[in-house]
Amino acid sequence: MRKIYGIDHGNGNIKTEHCVFPCGLVKMSKEPSRFMNEDIIKYKNTYYELSDTRMPYRQDKTNDLDYFVLTLFALAKEAKYRQERLNGSDIVLSVGLPPADFSAQSKAFYDYFTKESKHGVTFSFNGKEVNCYFRSVKVTPQNFAAVITQRSEMIKKYRTVNCIDIGDGTVDLLVLKKGKPDLRVRVSNKSGIAVMKYEIVNRIQQDFGIQIDGDLVEQVLLNEETVLDETVISAIKEMTTEWVQKIIDELHASVPDFRTNPTIFLGGGSILLKEALENSSDFSMINFLTDIRANAIGYQKIAEFQEVEH
Length: 310
Known about the structure:
This protein is an alpha+beta fold and 310 residues long. It folds into 2 domains: 2-141, ATPase, nucleotide binding domain (Nucleotidyltransferase, domain 5, 2-Layer Sandwich), CATH 3.30.420; 157-290, ATPase, nucleotide binding domain (Nucleotidyltransferase, domain 5, 2-Layer Sandwich), CATH 3.30.420. The protein has helices at 66-82, 99-116, 144-150, 152-157, 193-208, 214-221, 230-251, 268-272, 274-278, 294-309; strands at 2-6, 8-9, 13-15, 20-22, 25-28, 40-43, 46-50, 90-97, 121-125, 128-141, 160-166, 171-177, 180-181, 187-189, 263-266, 286-289. It has a 7-stranded mixed sheet with strand order 1-8-10-9-6-7-5, sandwiched between helices. Strands 11, 12, 13, 14, 15 and 16 form a 6-stranded mixed sheet that branches. It has a 3-stranded antiparallel sheet with strand order 2-3-4.
């Protein structure tokens, strides 16, 4: 039976239509015990467990098996949520790449999944064997998939729409002209949230002599309760505003003025920066796709549409 799965392979998190988990793996040669009912995959005689410690940023995700194994976790978790069986299934795998990397990396990304699965895919998930087949692999530009399926009314209304995806590792810019990507604009800057949090943590330690972590930075930006002094909270927000301006200044090389057309923000980072972005005078109209699964849902919908057409 054919099943369609959209998966967003981020630098910080893997996302499916219903599931989100960190891009972190622990590899073991022997089967570990499921102390807290952790999900465990066995693939090619190696056991894998998910970890909250994320892997370092990778522009090319095809150099080893890590992202393939993360894909297996995504399939297993999403199938569990849907109450579907993967065993014996023909799977349509719908994935994506940042617009700046799409032309150069789309074939390699396609090959990464198809070559590894050319004889089918066999693995065990929590001790149960799974055998399935990748019927097809579809690679779509990131941002485009999310915006075209979830903000179609804006695409129809405005001739030009700017799409900015703020992720953990990168900030990606896509410009849509009459609903199609402007191929002259291909931007992916390494100014993502992980880099910003690292900078803020270091500056807070230097300026205030206290050691915080990235989670505390997130709590402050989401206006959650902390025990931090108000001066520290104000400093974190001020540094965040500076980082937002840095992002905008970098993107101005491709879009000189964001005030002339609407801008859609997506990605987990845009949620953290929402307050600073809304207060920025560099935009006249902004819209947020706040669901961090937006790209995965977009990949899913595009694949479903293409499958019906065929």
